[in-house]
Amino acid sequence: MSGLPLILAATYKVRRFLALGALSRIRRDLIAKTIYVLNGPNMNLLGTREPEKYGRATLADVEKLCAETAKRFGMDVVCCQSNKEGELVDWIQEAHSKKAAGIVINPAGYTTTSIAIMDALLAVQATVPAIEIHITNIHQREAFRHNSYISKAAKAVVVGFGVNGYVLAITGLAGLVGAKQKR
Ligand code: DHK
């Protein structure tokens, strides 16, 4: 091939290459990429609260860890903490209305009592999967901590890894929604 046909073929290849690039960018944008990281009551006291159980990392440290982990997958986080049950329910509904990729939730003291949080997670589970995380191994602790309402609505549960559990939960969630780790 020479002359004009060669130039036309080259132009076609370049345009096809650019179009495929644009398509893959659009597809990337269509994949939900925000993870809601929700922490329940007393998690604002992390760092000073029973450090022999919960460690010395603060909530700010945990949220930074979550943001860094999500970034590895091209994702981002919205981090919220509340001592109020209804506020956690509101954020679960917000995650749904904002089309978040998923929720990582440490319901803390509401784990064993909150039908409202369980119901909210069940209401959105078809499009917004939730991963439940506990810093401590709740099954090794007092019997009243063993029964989690939240587990009935969670896709998966991470317990006992300390604050690294948040890294595992986000990594698991990213895999679940098909996000690929960036180099
Ligand atoms: C945190 C809490 O605040 C407790 O109420 C749970 C959980 C355990 C945790 O291990 O992160 O029982």
Give the SSE layout.
Layout (H helix, E strand, L loop, with lengths): L3 H27 L3 E6 L11 H4 L4 H14 L3 E6 L3 H13 L4 E5 L8 H10 L5 E5 L21 E4 L4 H13 L7
Parallel strand pairs: 1-2, 1-3, 3-4, 4-5
The structure holds 3-dehydroshikimate.
Q: What are the low-pLDDT stretches, counting only 5+ consecutive residues below 50?
A: none
Name of the CATH homologous superfamily of the largest domain: Dehydroquinase, class II
Q: Tally the helices: what do you get? A: 6
Task: State the secondary-structure class.
Answer: alpha/beta
Quick summary:
The chain has 183 residues and is of the alpha/beta class.
Can you tell me about this structure?
With about 180 residues, this protein is of the alpha/beta class. Helices cover about 45% and strands about 15% of the residues. The protein has a five-stranded parallel beta sheet, sandwiched between helices. 3-dehydroshikimate binds near residues 42, 135 and 136. 3-dehydroshikimate binds near residues 42, 106, 108, 109 and 138.
